[in-house]
Specification:
The protein is α/β, with parallel strands linked by helices. The chain contains six helices and six strands. The chain binds iron/sulfur cluster.
């Protein structure tokens, strides 16, 4: 059963030429199956929506080359994945085996610092220390999103959270079109 009780596997939720009104209002994609009570799930969802609303403008004002996108390893196609390991994260080899390929290409085109595939939520700290992003676009389940946002707030780094549409330990999924539009937003200008 898919769940979000595995707390150290993935991380962090979205703006752009996307429907900005919808995003700024804290719109998040749903359908996460999880092992939390519905109250806890709704609390996590509400928290991420409120934080997205709060961080949206600052995220957009940060130049793309100061932004990074973090995605969870559970999105990879582990049967095909050729991503290279670098300590606390993987770098997508863009083999085409999963949706991360297209996301990585869009992030590069938009001028992002890059896309990192997190080995676990606890690795956010290491990535921030190493790459010093000024804003983060974080893809994750709601649980990891809450943890990541809280952690990044300590460092005053605005996080825009983009939720998985299907979470779990592996074979997770997301709505890619909205995310690509967000990346193509180029600072929302
Ligand atoms: S596209 Fe990237 S993350 Fe996905 S399976 Fe290939 S190398 Fe791994």
């Amino acid at each position: 059963m898919a769940g979000i009780v595995q707390h150290d596997r993935c991380f962090l939720s979205a703006p752009g030429s996307v429907d900005r009104t919808r995003v700024a209002a804290g719109f998040v994609l749903g359908n996460n199956h999880n092992n939390f009570s519905s109250d806890t799930f709704m609390n996590h969802k509400k928290f991420t929506q409120e934080k997205n609303k709060k961080h949206f403008e600052k995220f957009l004002q940060t130049p793309a080359d100061k932004r990074i996108i973090l995605v969870p390893q559970c999105l990879r196609n582990i049967k095909k994945c050729k991503a290279k390991e670098f300590g606390s994260y993987y770098v997508c080899a863009e083999c085409g085996g999963c949706k991360i390929c297209k996301i990585s290409q869009a992030a590069k085109s938009a001028g992002y610092i890059g896309l990192k595939i997190l080995k676990g939520g606890s690795t956010v700290r290491k990535i921030v220390a190493e790459l010093k992003p000024e804003a983060i676009l974080g893809v994750a389940c709601y649980f990891e999103g809450v943890q990541g946002i809280k952690e990044c707030e300590q460092w005053k780094i605005p996080v825009y959270f983009y939720p998985l549409s299907k979470d779990g330990c592996e074979n997770t999924d997301l709505e890619i079109d909205e995310l690509i539009k967000l990346l193509e937003g180029k600072n929302g200008k």
